[in-house]
Structures are given as C-alpha cells and as structure tokens.
Specification:
The protein is α+β, with helices and mostly antiparallel strands. The chain contains 10 helices and 22 strands. It has a single domain, classed as Aminopeptidase (3-Layer(aba) Sandwich), CATH 3.40.630. The strands form 7 sheets. The chain has a 7-stranded mixed beta sheet, with helices on both faces. The chain has a 4-stranded mixed beta sheet with strand order 12-9-22-18.
C-alpha cells in the first residue's frame, strides 16, 4: 500500500495486513456472499424445507461476535420468537476479509499467505438496509481505498483500540475485528447496526453452484490473466458458476477502468442478476437449492452473535419476500479522488450526506446517476459519469486521474411517489435493471 502522508501518520493503529507481493490478488469477492444475508440464507425455511435442514445449518454457524454499541447508542433488542418476517427494519453489515488463513487449497502457497493472513483487511464491505415497512431495500458498497476517520474500537481481547482521524477504510478489520468495521460504518452513516458477518474467500464457488450458476450480460469480452482461474469470457450472455464466478467477482484488471470502483459496479451487475434469479427464477420454490445455498454460506461466515440463531436469518430474508426487484437498490458510497493521494478516495460530502440522510430517515431512494464504471444499462440513455477518482492502484490501461475539485452534488429531493432522488454522483442500479459488464479493453 502507498504510505500515508506524513501529517496523517499519527494514531494509525495496528499495521495493516501486507499486500506487497500480490497486489492484484486482493480480495474483493464477497459480493456473492452477500446473498447469505440479503436474499437467500433466510428463506431456508420457506415452504417444504425440513426442520432437519434448519438444524444442520444451525450447527454449522460459527461462534458469534458480540457487537458493542457506540457511545450514546442504545442496542436494539432482536428477540425473534416466530418464523415470520422480522418486525421493523434491518441494518446488516457484511465484511469480506482477504485473509488466506486456514482456507487451504490454492491459498496454502507461501505467496498467498504472505499476501494476506491473520485477520485480513475488509476489502469488500456492504451494508444491507431493509426499510421498516419492508417495501424497499438498499445495499451500499464501501470502496476499500476510502480514506475516513476510524473511531475508537472495542478490542476483541477487551479494552479499546485507538482510532485515527485519517485511515484507509479497509484496515478497520485488521485493527479491531468485525466490531471495528461496524463502528466505522456506523460513524460514517449515522446508523445503528445490530447485525454483521465476516466472510472469507471460501464458499463462492459452492454458492454459485447451489443456484445452478448466474446468467450475466457482457457488453464486451472480459479477460483477466491475474485471477485464478484466468478469465477469458466472450461478449454476450454468459452463465458463470464455480471458480469462474469467483474470478469474475474478484476481477479488477478485466472490467471497467481497472479500478476498485469499477469492480464494485461489476459486482452489482452480478448481484442484480443473482437477485432476479432468486426472486423470479424458481429458487424460492426449490428447497434443495435454498438449503444448499444456505449451508454453503454459513459454513464460511463468522456472524455477530445476533445472527447465530438461524431463525433470525430466516426472518431477515422473509422481510424481502414482497419488496420487489425495482425497490432493491445497489449503490456505491460516493467518493472523489483524495487530494493527498491520487490512488485513494475520500467521501464526496454532499452526496454522502444525502445518502446517509435517506438511510437514517428510512426513505426509499431513486437513482439519477450512472450504473458505474464497469456496468452499462443498454436500455438507458447515456449520462456523464461522475468524477469519482479511480481508487485502487493505477491501472495499466487507464491511469489514475489527478485530483480535481468535485462539483457539489445537489441534495436528495423527494419525488411525487415518496422516494428520495439521490444526487447524480451516486452510481448504482436496481435489481430490476438488466445491466451488462464492460470489459477493460
């Protein structure tokens, strides 16, 4: 990683996990695993799924991480007596670690272990917000290279880990575990987050197999020799499954402009296609697929202790049963180039404020911006892409743009239908949009 500017080096906390030898193998894979919390795990008990399946899933869940409320926050009680949609809203954070520890297989090599081991970094972080009335859902992806304040965090061993006024977002996990990632996102958004899970690389192939693969649209070929296995996908409709799905979600050099922000929008193409298959493609009525997917997910997550009861997982997903694809929105937390480091980004304040306000006020949102750097909507009219900085390492194809002053984004405005229009600098898509991935050519 690039060193921080000298004036920001005070109180940085524990040293981040090294990525020196394999910068292109960083873990940005947890998008598929978000399914475990967003749409699929929780529908395990729908219809004819047997009680045995629920018991077997329950015994697979790892010991939970107790989430501590920030000063001034009151923990939200989450006692769930019945298998029905969870009452009220849900805030659930997914932190995807890039650690190779204990994964086995291809991750046992010395180079892989040297790339990242131990706690790892939260190179993919997503926040699921389900509205109180269950009529809307938003998934917010946080760029790994976002420079933000990290608050004091409770230590997994007791005590407190000092925060920092300026630190890379993806170091929160290695600083203080899942609690620190939750505390950082809570501080950024103003939300109380009672549910969370840490997820590793394993299980992506298993979960994509469990749904029989996911059909994605490629606007141009996707070629990436730096993934394992390498990607060489022709343009058009492609069904990706197993290890190819893992490579597709991890790919940075093969999509968009080669940046981490491009990878986020590529993951949103996959997630929206996956949501359509789950909702419209018969997965909800197939107990075998549902159970297999749930089992693959819980085998590879370390949940907060609020998620160790499988009934809670069931109830969270039941809250989405009637939400509708148009009301499932995937967005990237708005960012612009960091003036101190062109390889990092900082929050675009006015747009971030608008997004945070919609989240805190539990309002449905309407997108007005583009679909992101690596995605395009073939049915939409062209719109200019916002200046968001490249993020990540400089791409050999598209160099990182120099820092430029951001044009202030307009605040969110209510529409006639009650949804809040987000500023056009916020990129993303709905699950209903059948977008296509743009290869890095």
């Amino acid at each position: 990683m690039t060193d921080l500017p000298r004036r920001h080096q005070r109180a940085r906390g524990p040293e981040a996990v090294r990525h020196g030898r394999l910068p292109r193998r960083r873990g940005a894979v947890a998008a598929l695993k978000l399914l475990s919390a967003v749409v699929v795990i929780a529908v395990v008990s729908i219809g004819s799924v047997a009680a045995y399946a629920v018991w077997d899933v329950a015994r697979s869940i790892k010991t939970g991480v107790h989430l501590q409320a920030l000063p001034g926050q009151t923990p939200i009680p989450q006692d769930i007596p019945n298998v029905a949609a969870i009452p009220g809203g849900v805030n659930l954070l997914i932190a995807g670690t890039d650690s190779r520890s204990d994964l086995g297989g291809i991750y046992n090599s010395a180079d892989e272990q040297d790339a990242s081991s131990g706690a790892g970094n939260n190179d993919v972080t997503m926040l699921l917000h389900i509205a109180q009335d269950h009529k809307s859902m938003m998934v917010v992806s946080f760029p790994r290279d976002l420079m933000v304040p990290i608050p004091d965090c409770p230590s997994p061993d007791g005590g407190t880990i000092d925060g920092s006024s300026y630190a890379q977002f993806n170091t929160a996990l290695s600083r203080g575990g899942l609690n620190c990632v939750v505390a950082t996102v809570s501080k950024m958004t103003g939300l109380s987050i009672p549910f969370a899970a840490e997820i590793n690389f394993n299980g992506v192939s298993a979960m994509s197999n469990a749904v029989g693969g996911v059909n994605v649209c490629l606007a141009s070929p996707v070629v990436d020799d730096y993934t394992n296995p390498p990607l060489d996908l022709p343009a058009g409709e492609q069904t990706i499954v197993g290890d190819v799905a893992l490579s597709f979600l991890r790919s940075r050099h093969g999509v968009g402009d080669g940046s981490d922000l491009g990878r986020i929008s590529n993951q949103q193409v996959f997630l929206s296609a996956l949501a359509r298959k789950v909702v419209s493609g018969g997965v909800l009525s197939n107990p075998v697929q549902l159970y297999g997917l749930a089992k693959a997910a819980v085998d590879n997550i370390t949940p907060s202790d609020t998620l160790t009861n499988p009934t809670t997982l069931v109830q969270i997903a039941l809250a989405l049963k009637d939400t509708g694809l148009d009301n499932m929105v995937f967005v990237q937390y708005p960012a612009v180039t960091d003036p101190d480091n062109p390889n990092r980004v900082i929050p675009q304040e006015s747009a971030a404020d608008a997004l945070n306000e919609a989240l805190v006020n539990d309002q449905p949102v309407k997108l007005t911006g583009s679909t992101g750097r690596a995605a395009e909507d073939p049915t939409a009219t062209a719109s200019p892409a916002p200046d968001a900085g490249a993020g990540g390492e400089p791409s050999p194809v598209t160099p990182t743009a120099p820092a430029t002053p951001a044009t202030p984004a307009p605040g969110a405005t209510d529409t006639a239908g009650g949804a809040v229009e987000l500023p056009s600098t916020i990129t993303g898509q709905t699950a209903a949009q059948q977008t296509c991935t743009k290869g890095n050519d």
